[in-house]
Amino acid sequence: MRLTPGGLLWLKGLLHLSFILPVVYLIMLVLTDNAGGDPVQYIIHFTGMGAINALVVTLMISPLAKLTKQGLLLQIRRLVGLYVFAYACLHISAFISLDLLFAWGFLVEEVIKRPYILVGFSGFIIALLLAVTSFKALRRNMGRRWQSLHNWIYVLAILAPIHFYWSVKSEIIEPSIYIAVIACLLWLRRRQISHWLMPKSKLRPKINTNAKSQT
Predict the structure, then answer these.
(1) What does the alpha-carbon distance between residue 204 and residue 113 come to, in Å, rounded to a whole number?
(2) Which of 43, 135, 179, 189 is 20–30 Å from 141 (CA)?
């Protein structure tokens, strides 16, 4: 069944609901004192899971579009990618405001004590850059640099599950599953990643050198 522009509009609406309703649910849990024994950690974990889930969905879109030959699916990547950033903002805001209580002096101490915070913050910076440059006007102005920058989503896809795995104290099964899933999704993109890391322009001098040596 071919996806139509009208169907794409409905799909976008469903995606908005699927990402907004969990936040509403979280607010209701907090207001009714049902956010677990440690509401602060519950909020931080909940929003972090929202970010990594949105990231997984983002990485699934291109392979799914290619498999089903539904090119219109690619038009939802920006929407889902922005929700990655939105949940990441909620995640880091909850940590700074509810856990640190805006005590910026303790931030360095916390990073030293919990290095996974630095990994997570590095991922947040990447998500911020991708979100800011996701607008069409900036994409046109950046030209080829835009794609080079947005390839950093692969780095984000590595940092996010590492941050998750490192942050848990004992339950490593769930983060291990995310690592496996994301590793598979990155494997599907191995050609794009290799071309990004080793562009043809870097390979040409070696080829020319070998050609001269043979002559």
Answers:
(1) 46
(2) 189
Question: What tens digit of pLDDT does each residue of 105-154 get?
Answer: 888 888 888 889 999 999 999 999 999 999 888 888 888 888 889 999 99
Long-range contact pairs involving 7-16 (C-beta distance under 8 Å, separation at least 24):
7/72, 8/72, 8/75, 8/76, 11/76, 12/76, 12/79, 15/76, 15/79, 15/80, 15/83, 16/79
DSSP letter at 75 equals G
**Per-residue pLDDT tens digits for 65-80:** 999 999 999 999 999 9
How many Å apart are CA 193 and CA 201, to the nearest integer? 15
Nearest to 72 by CA among 19, 133, 7, 16: 7
CA distances, 206 to each of 126, 196, 203 (Å): 32, 17, 6
Q: Which of 15, 52, 83 is nearest to 156 (CA)?
A: 52
> Cα separations (Å) of 130 from 134, 144, 145, 165, 197?
6, 14, 12, 23, 18
* Contact (Cβ atoms closer than 8 angstroms) between residue 92 and residue 100: no
Angstrom CA distances, 103 to 96, 139, 150, stand at 8, 37, 33
Distance CA 185, CA 164 (A): 17
